[in-house]
Specification:
143 residues, alpha+beta, four-stranded mixed beta sheet, two-stranded antiparallel ribbon, 43% helix, 19% strand, globular
């Protein structure tokens, strides 16, 4: 179990973490239902911005713990503010920008700490097969 903001805990099935160790892609995704997610914080008097910040911070802590436990061969971070919060939590301070996977979405490599391929994508665009293309681009660097 991973502790999130406000003492909430999130249970991650062992088979999900095993996917990382078995050299398979693993997707961690927050609910796409913004109303549902922000509704959880309304009872605490939080605005949507405050709720978003708390959710992003909790998700970043969770990703940080997973990355420490099972270091990935690369990351695809989507969702603007959530992606930047995760990058800060992981200590990603500098990136080498490579070729585009799609227009406006380059494959990068972290140059702070251990080099790791990383793709940042806003939630607002990308083809239907974007995630597969991003994973293939990361894999091509690690082959």
């Amino acid at each position: 179990a991973l502790e999130l903001a406000g003492g909430a805990e999130l249970e991650i099935p062992a088979e999900s973490l095993a996917a990382l160790r078995d050299d398979r892609a693993c997707l961690l995704q927050l609910s796409r239902n913004q109303e549902e997610v922000h509704g959880l914080f309304r009872g605490q008097g939080k605005t949507e911005i405050e709720a978003g910040e708390r959710i992003a911070a909790g998700f970043a802590r969770m990703v940080g713990r997973i990355v420490c436990a099972a270091p990935p061969k690369g990351l695809v971070l989507a969702g603007g503010e959530t992606a930047s919060t995760i990058a800060r939590a992981l200590g990603l301070r500098a990136l080498q920008v490579g070729t585009n996977i799609e227009p406006g979405v380059p494959l990068c490599v972290s140059i702070s700490g251990s080099p790791m391929p990383i793709v940042f994508k806003s939630g607002n665009f990308g083809s239907d097969d974007f995630y597969g293309r991003a994973i293939a681009a990361i894999s091509s660097l690690r082959s």
